Amino acid sequence: MKRVIIIGGGPAGLMAATQLLKSDCEILLLDQKASVGRKFLVAGDGGFNLTHSETQSEFREKYDSDWIKQAVKQFSNKDWIKFLKQIGIETKVGSSGKIFPEDAIKPIQVLNAWKQLLEPRIQFILNTRFVDFDEKQVEVERDGKLEKIDFDYLVLALGGKSWPVTGSDGFWTAVFEQKGIVLNPFQSSNSGLVLYENWLGDLEGKILKNIRVSAGDQSCSGDLVCTSYGLEGKPAYAINGALRKMEKPFFNVDLKPQMTQQKVFEVLKKAKNPSQGLKELKLGEVAIFWIRNFVSKQRFLDPKELAKAIKEFSIGIKGFRPIEEVISCAGGVSDAEISESGELNKFPNVFVAGEMIDWDAPTGGYLIQGCVSSGCISGKTIRNRLLAE
Ligand SMILES: Cc1cc2nc3c(=O)[nH]c(=O)nc-3n(C[C@H](O)[C@H](O)[C@H](O)COP(=O)(O)OP(=O)(O)OC[C@H]3O[C@@H](n4cnc5c(N)ncnc54)[C@H](O)[C@@H]3O)c2cc1C
Fold first, then answer.
1. Residue 210: helix, strand or coil by DSSP?
2. Same domain, 235 and 365
């Protein structure tokens, strides 16, 4: 009987395994941790945003590479929701179209329902670390001993490099580099923004409400939270990609997106002085601190210039948070190294899936969706080959 080995029990590896359930083969799923799906559960801690309800075309536009766009086309948000329903997980559409499990369903219940589907058919081998591979064998370390296991097909779904405590520690990058497989360097993504010290003031914990940020061709509305080092929140994460492309990264904040620049100007002009004008615009403490400290006196006293500053407040960033702390990372296996199904050009029958491939997307369910879509196409491709054989 043919043997398929999947290494990595995150959403990508679990979905690859799911596609093989009805195939006539032996399936081993290995993970270096004592349990699978640890980052999946961490994702559940802050609201389990599994995917998004947008139309297919809007949805795919959120991804940055053609490779992941075609993967998401093959296994879409609708397919993922349908699969969840099949394993007994009802979903609901939350704020701004995000998809979550129904209120009463906890993240661990989602993982357990998925494991229950897989367990009768798939052999889980835990506490087992992937060390190396070639065309026919994978080398693993278990109980301090190295061991080689033969495979007919291998799926590596080893994750990126963020939150290494969950198991995705990026060890595999050294193995791939040794084999001449091109990797694009990992970079923090969906990361908080680190600001220069003079921007921080005494603002930790304060919220910049209902603003709009933009950088390059990316923009996003929402709230930003001030931290000891800078800013966190969806709008900050959404512009990471554009900021990464800039030599001297900066972004603009529209501190009053509900009003046109002309309207802001009119309010300021009518006010007895600029400070009164800022009050009437109901700008919060953070906005007022920044305006007072970073808008020149000359601009502050000129309502036209002050209106412009409020609508296009420019902030340079010092950098991103360390990769270990962030939600996801950009970088990984270059799509020039893989086929549409994730098969490595240099190693036929060896597939990669999930966050270890170089693609990026904002938070909002797009990350888990990208991982299950890519896991699905690798598993499906193997299933079809097994059938043909
Ligand atoms: C705080 C946080 C919140 C998030 N929230 C969301 C969200 O709300 N919505 C969303 O869509 N996404 C979210 N994500 C992102 C999402 O969890 C990841 O994109 C997804 O889990 C990646 O799946 P994966 O299968 O590629 O890798 P992982 O889930 O990282 O799984 C990789 C697996 O490979 C194993 N492994 C790695 N190296 C080895 C080795 N050498 N040997 C054996 N096993 C190995 C690991 O132990 C792990 O089990 C969040 C992430 C974080 C950190």
1. strand
2. no
Interior angle at CA 114, CA 108 and CA 118, nearest 5:
135
pLDDT in tens, 4-47: 999 999 999 999 999 999 999 999 999 999 999 999 999 988 78
* Cα 273 to ligand 1 centre (Å): 53
Q: Is the CB of 54 under 6 A from ligand 1?
A: no
The per-residue pLDDT for 272 is 96
Distance CA 387, CA 389 (A): 5
Tell me the pLDDT tens digit for each residue of 209-238.
999 999 999 999 999 999 999 999 999 999
In the block, residue with structure tokens 């296996």:
333
pLDDT at 95 > cutoff 90: no
Domain boundary among 276, 295, 320: 320
- Whether residue 259 sits in one domain with residue 183: no
| 170 lies in the same domain as 45 | yes
In a mutational test of the pocket of ligand 1, which residue from 54, 95, 139, 158 has the highest number of ligand atoms less than 8 Å from its CB?
A: 158
| Atom 50 of ligand 1: nearest residue by CA position | 43
* pLDDT interval class at 111 (50, 70, 90): very high
Angstrom distance (rounded) from CA 345 to CA 337: 6
Q: Cα separation of 353 and 351, whole Å?
A: 7
For strands 230-232 and 250-254, give the pairing: unpaired
**Largest Cα–Cα distance of the chain, in whole Å?**
84
Q: What is the token pair recorded at 348? A: 């036929």
- DSSP helix/strand/coil, 294: helix
Does 251 sit in the ligand 1 pocket, CB within 6 Å?
A: no
Local confidence band at 242 (pLDDT 50, 70, 90 cut-offs): very high
Q: Each residue of 333-366: pLDDT tens digit? A: 999 999 999 999 999 999 999 999 999 999 889 9
101 lines ligand 1 (CB under 6 A): no
Of 270, 290, 320, the residue at which a domain comes to its end is: 320
Domain span including residue 223? 193-320
> Is there a single domain that holds both residue 169 and residue 277?
no
How many other C-beta atoms are found inside a 10 Å radius of the C-beta of residue 78? 12
The protein residue whose alpha carbon is closest to atom 29 in ligand 1 is 10
